[in-house]
Amino acid sequence: MVKDTESGKDSGLVNVDTRTDNRQSFWQRKFGDYQPNSPLPSGKHQADVLIIGAGFTGLTAAREICRDRPGANVMVLDAHEVGFGASGRNGGFNMSLFGVEPETTVLRWGKQKTREAQRYMQQAVAYVKTLIEDENLDSDYEHNGMWRVAYSKAQEKRLRKTFALLEELAGPGHYQFLEQDAVRQHLNAPQMRAAIMEPESGILDPCKHVRNLKRLAEQAGARLHENTHVNAIERKGQEIEVRTGEARVLAKKLILATNAWTHTLPGPRKVRNRQRPVWTYQIVSEPLTETEWQSLGWQQRMSIEDNRQLVHYMRITRCGRITMGGGQIGTEYGTDMDRWHDENIWQALEAHFRWLFPTLQHKKIDYKWGGAVSANLDMVPEIGFIGDENILYSTGCIGHGVSLTQLNGRLLADLIAGKETERTRFWIVNRKAIPLPPGNLLSYIGVKAVEGILKGVDWMEERELRASKTELRQTADQD
After folding, report:
1. Other Cβ atoms closer than 10 A to 365
2. Is the pLDDT reported for residue 14 higher than 70?
3. How confident is the model at residue 8 (pLDDT cuts 50, 70, 90)?
4. Could you tell me if 385 and 110 are in contact, meaning their C-beta atoms sit under 8 angstroms apart?
5. How many CA atoms lie within 13 A of 377 on its CB side?
6. What is the number of other CB atoms lying within 10 angstroms of the CB of residue 27?
7. CA dihedral 8, 16, 314, 319 (to 10 degrees)
8. Residue 478 pLDDT exceeds 70
9. Pairwise CA distance, residues 449 & 126, whole Å
10. What are the chain's domains?
11. pLDDT in tens, 270-302
12. pLDDT average, residue stretch 44-65
């Protein structure tokens, strides 16, 4: 069967309608009741390693540090519940894409560094898959591969160049190019002209997975406190003092694993200008019937991302739905972090869904949500130190962080231990990144300028598609 449902009904989601449920993602809502750990009690606390941020990065780092040093005093703090941020609301793609485009990485860093990045990402995918299998994690993991698709002639031409570059970087056998006839044998989506198929990719339920990582970190010995907001970060001699309301923690080492939220931290100025949040939005359909799945032909259950500059990404859920996200993005001025809802972008996603899957015109959208990812100016992840080697940070996932952030957690553990490994020699460590302009306004203008360029490229490459999209909108209006 294509789906794990009973008569097309979803047993994992109750009382869902087309409204958003506050700020919850589909995955958080589907998870159901969750009991967070208590906030950090008032008073003075000590830690060998303190980690701010209990997402994929922070929880993986906590577990690996505890495994490296049994008995170490490792504490993790999060301002919300585990799974509240990107780790609990992303698309769940365990994929090997580094940054945004391999061509962009080559242009900025050269082929050798891009080749190293490709190898790192392949290791990251394997790290996640192996962890799930070895620990028997209930993450709804499926290792069914991924397609990257083109809609227009211009996109197909560029996709062929990308395929040639990926084969050069990763070696033959890791990717396969599918012509349109081959695409149509596996998926009834007539707008797809061609695809790059990557077998070594997978999908998971991100909220289930991150809360499994919480359990693993605690089993290894880490102490975790949720709903604990950090008010101040200061150096106190050889230690770092972190204050949270009526509590303070003196730590020998500090890891900032807050990614898209990093610019909101009250700590050193350097870390606040490394990245800015980019908001991305998703929708999920009502469950498909068995007849609809047969008509669609998506039997291989591979995940899909298009090769637009502002990409769409889509996949099947374990409960027989289709999720779709991406396309337009949201940006914000300041540090409010409150762009959870955007009806215009949700409507654009629904229109793209109906254009791409014409046999599903009648399907309702059951749920929609948004969240922020970490982006920087040169579109490449960054891990570094602030001042000495006692404060570490990790940012710049660019929306492709499921596998990346978890291997980055292992890398951070290596750095904490002072180990020299293949991971710590990876060139994103202490790289000379391009800082964002000072102040919220200039940073906002910079992000909007990059967005404008990406939109312009998509507009040029999709000129031939606009007639079909206009016709579909007119048909929908008549209905």
Report:
1. 20
2. no
3. very low
4. no
5. 15
6. 27
7. -40
8. no
9. 36
10. 1-26+276-375+442-479 (3.30.9), 34-140+204-274+376-436 (3.50.50.60)
11. 777 778 899 999 999 999 999 999 999 999 999
12. 98
